[in-house]
Structure formats: C-alpha cells, structure tokens
Amino acid sequence: MVKFKTSKKNTALSTRAIAAQVILQVLDQGKSLSALIPEVQNQVKSQDLSLLQEICFGICRVLPRLEHIIKQLVDKPLKGKTRIVHCLLLVGLYQLLYTRIPAHAAVDEVVNATTSLKSDSFRGLINGVLRRFLREQDTILANVDKHWQTLHPDWFVNRLKKVYPNWREIIEANNQKPPMWLRVNQQKNSLETYRSLLQAQGVESEVADSSCALRLLQPLGVAQLPYFDQGAVTVQDLNAQWSALLLEPQNGELILDACAAPGGKTTHILENAPQAQVVALDVEPNRLKRVYENLTRMQQKAQVICGDATQPEQWLSQISDSAVQFDRILLDAPCSATGVIRRHPDIKWLRQDADIPQLVQLQSQILQALWALLKPSGTLLYATCSVLPEENALQIEQFLQNNTDAKLEPLPFDLPDSAIGVQFLPKENGGDGFYYAKLKKLF
C-alpha cells in the first residue's frame, strides 16, 4: 500500500488518490475493501473517511456502468502502469454521477490527484475525458443505459436464474445501499426503551418481527448510538440476528461458536445465555481482535481460540475439559457471501465461479469435523450468508444422507414440508441473504 502525505492544503486531493489506489488493489490484486479501508483510514482526516468509503464501495456497486462509460470515452484501454489512471477515471465518474460534489470540484480534485500518484503526464487525458463526459452526458448515458444492467458478474446471474424465478428482485436488492440494523441488548434495555432513547436524540427507527431488531431510517455512526460503548446495542443485520435465536443457547451449557469473528454472534449468544460457557473459534488471528473488542464492549467473557475448524485436534486441548463434548455448536461457515453483496459490493468482483465448489468442499469438511464434537441430543446450527443452494440446502441434504445420527429440526417459519432449512433473500429495507439449518444429534 502506497502511503500519501497529506496536509491541510491537499487532504481532499489525497482522498481521491487513496480511493483510486484502493480500487486498483480490489480489481487487480483481489483484495477486499474490508481489509483495505482499515489500512488506509489513518491517511485521511476523520471527516474524509466517509467520503473515501462512499467512493470505494460505490464504485464496486456500479462498476460495470462506469466501465461502459469509460469505453465510450477512452480509445485505448489503460493497462499495466496506467491502470491507476483508469481507477482515477472511475473515481471521477462516480463523483459526477452519484455524489453532490460540484462537478468542477470533482474534476479538479481527480486531475490534481495525479501528482500524488506520479501520473502527471495524464492530467490532460483525465481532464479531457471527465469534461467531455459532462458535455455529452445525456448521449453517453442513453447509449450505456439502453439495456438493463445487472451490475453483477455473468456467472453469478446465471446461477441465480437457474434457481430463483425472482432473480431480478435479488439483483435489484443487491444494488441498493444496505439498511442499518441494530440488535438491542435485552440484558440492558427492552426494544421499546432503546427506541425511545433513539427518539430522544432525533433518530427514527422501525421495529421488525424480532424481539431485538431495530432499523434506523437514516444510518449513522456508532458514536451517535446511545450507550453503544456500554454494550447497550450492536450493529447487526436483521437476518444475521436469527443465528443466536435459532441456536437457543441455555445457561450452563458448553457452546462452540465456530468461525466466530468478528464476534457479533458470540455476544448475542451470551446476551441470551449469560451463564453459558462459550468458546469462540476462528482461524484468522487478526479477525479475532474484533472478537476481543466486542466482548470487552459488551462486558462479556468467552474463551477465544485461534484454530482451524477442520482440525479440532489442534486446538481442542485448550478447552478446560477437552473430553467434554459441546451442547450446542453454531457453525457460521465460510461461504461465497453472495447474500451480503449490497453490504460488501466488492464480493462481486472478488468471487469467481470456480470458488463455489471449493467452498462447498470446505463447508463439508468443517461440518463433518465439528459434528464429532457434538454430544448426543446436542444441536448444531449451520449458517451461511450465501444464496446459493450448493452451499446451503444441497449441502445439508448431502450431510443428512451421510450421517444417520443427524436429524433436521423444524424452524419457526412458514416453510413447505419439503424445505431443508430456511433461505432468506436480501430485501430492500429488510435483511440480507442468509441460510439456516438446525440439526439434532440422535446418538
């Protein structure tokens, strides 16, 4: 990552340069925004961070449309070392189309960003392309937008078409900015009490069909949420909140939260069963830092272990009584994350069709490995943030065929008798795409 010097004079300029650098790493190096933004956020002023995020996430959300526009305006593709110039054009076009930044300022700031990126020789090209777009905007957009654009990779659209008659609705929901959902800590406040606290600060919210979920009508920073630092509330998607509710943890039980980072599900389990012994497991040390942070903020305790869920023998001895099997296991399995695209739009350009079979195999390995750690009559809740059947219902169907000691448990939803688990799809002002299947170990 290139670090840019900033000053009072050129902070805005540097924000555009950093945005272009971030987008370059997403598109050409396969890095995620969730990893890149924390790396660079200290290089911009705090008041510019929201702009950086808006530009980077926004470009990933509408990338094909911006790419079509560039093809109309640039004769030869910008490749190799000039790819950063291509990314600056993406930054400029996004600002002109999707932000309220005055056009002249948007153009000037992107043109001036070439200095930080040692691309001064392209100042004229960037200036000319963006100003031509402004002059010919109606004609260019009429040509670019004459056919409906999914703004998704073809492989994913084709998979949706094979499974969902309403695939266009899923695509449209993915293309929206995500709603902001809160999970109210029932140990501290009732839903209505916390909603009143929000209203007292002029923050409006809506109640969902859940005991602890509120949707903010306008997203805001966590620092503005009443008693956030004291653990009164957590930012968590509506459908993600079902994980702890469907697991039904009980006080005194030994519970494993597998693939636990960043810890939202771990803390929810402890909100519902404060006296449970919870083990939070994840394979990535850096992500476990977030688990510790969330436990500290929520004033909760859990045993946090860094380990591979496919290799329990490598970490099981760290538990106080490693011979004891778990009463309940929550497996939030590694997946394609195709249900949370609106929240992480870079997934569309990071994930490939060939990844799906590999993920399915990994999920199967984890599921089988953890099943051996579950006591008889114990419960395992399998969860993903995917909308692809191969990772969800088909995965569980195969597991049930291979394990005669596994029984599919009913879920509290209106589902067909033939349903294997429940598949939530992303909905505007609703929850993200999630899947759940509840399994009981018979013997």
UniProtKB/TrEMBL annotation:
<dbReference type="Pfam" id="PF01189">
    <property type="entry name" value="Methyltr_RsmB-F"/>
</dbReference>
<feature type="binding site">
    <location>
        <position position="332"/>
    </location>
    <ligand>
        <name>S-adenosyl-L-methionine</name>
    </ligand>
</feature>
<dbReference type="InterPro" id="IPR006027">
    <property type="entry name" value="NusB_RsmB_TIM44"/>
</dbReference>
<feature type="binding site">
    <location>
        <begin position="259"/>
        <end position="265"/>
    </location>
    <ligand>
        <name>S-adenosyl-L-methionine</name>
    </ligand>
</feature>
<feature type="binding site">
    <location>
        <position position="282"/>
    </location>
    <ligand>
        <name>S-adenosyl-L-methionine</name>
    </ligand>
</feature>
<dbReference type="GO" id="GO:0005829">
    <property type="term" value="C:cytosol"/>
</dbReference>
<dbReference type="InterPro" id="IPR048019">
    <property type="entry name" value="RsmB-like_N"/>
</dbReference>
<dbReference type="InterPro" id="IPR029063">
    <property type="entry name" value="SAM-dependent_MTases_sf"/>
</dbReference>
<comment type="function">
    <text>Specifically methylates the cytosine at position 967 (m5C967) of 16S rRNA.</text>
</comment>
<dbReference type="InterPro" id="IPR023267">
    <property type="entry name" value="RCMT"/>
</dbReference>
<keyword id="KW-0489">Methyltransferase</keyword>
<keyword id="KW-0698">rRNA processing</keyword>
<dbReference type="GO" id="GO:0009383">
    <property type="term" value="F:rRNA (cytosine-C5-)-methyltransferase activity"/>
</dbReference>
<feature type="active site" description="Nucleophile">
    <location>
        <position position="385"/>
    </location>
</feature>
<dbReference type="InterPro" id="IPR035926">
    <property type="entry name" value="NusB-like_sf"/>
</dbReference>
<keyword id="KW-0694">RNA-binding</keyword>
<feature type="binding site">
    <location>
        <position position="308"/>
    </location>
    <ligand>
        <name>S-adenosyl-L-methionine</name>
    </ligand>
</feature>
<dbReference type="InterPro" id="IPR054728">
    <property type="entry name" value="RsmB-like_ferredoxin"/>
</dbReference>
<feature type="domain" description="SAM-dependent MTase RsmB/NOP-type">
    <location>
        <begin position="170"/>
        <end position="442"/>
    </location>
</feature>
<dbReference type="GO" id="GO:0006355">
    <property type="term" value="P:regulation of DNA-templated transcription"/>
</dbReference>
<dbReference type="InterPro" id="IPR001678">
    <property type="entry name" value="MeTrfase_RsmB-F_NOP2_dom"/>
</dbReference>
<comment type="similarity">
    <text>Belongs to the class I-like SAM-binding methyltransferase superfamily. RsmB/NOP family.</text>
</comment>
<dbReference type="InterPro" id="IPR004573">
    <property type="entry name" value="rRNA_ssu_MeTfrase_B"/>
</dbReference>
<keyword id="KW-0949">S-adenosyl-L-methionine</keyword>
<dbReference type="Pfam" id="PF01029">
    <property type="entry name" value="NusB"/>
</dbReference>
<dbReference type="GO" id="GO:0070475">
    <property type="term" value="P:rRNA base methylation"/>
</dbReference>
<dbReference type="InterPro" id="IPR018314">
    <property type="entry name" value="RsmB/NOL1/NOP2-like_CS"/>
</dbReference>
<dbReference type="GO" id="GO:0003723">
    <property type="term" value="F:RNA binding"/>
</dbReference>
<dbReference type="Pfam" id="PF22458">
    <property type="entry name" value="RsmF-B_ferredox"/>
</dbReference>
<dbReference type="InterPro" id="IPR049560">
    <property type="entry name" value="MeTrfase_RsmB-F_NOP2_cat"/>
</dbReference>
<protein>
    <recommendedName>
        <fullName>16S rRNA (cytosine(967)-C(5))-methyltransferase</fullName>
        <ecNumber>2.1.1.176</ecNumber>
    </recommendedName>
</protein>
<keyword id="KW-0963">Cytoplasm</keyword>
<keyword id="KW-0808">Transferase</keyword>
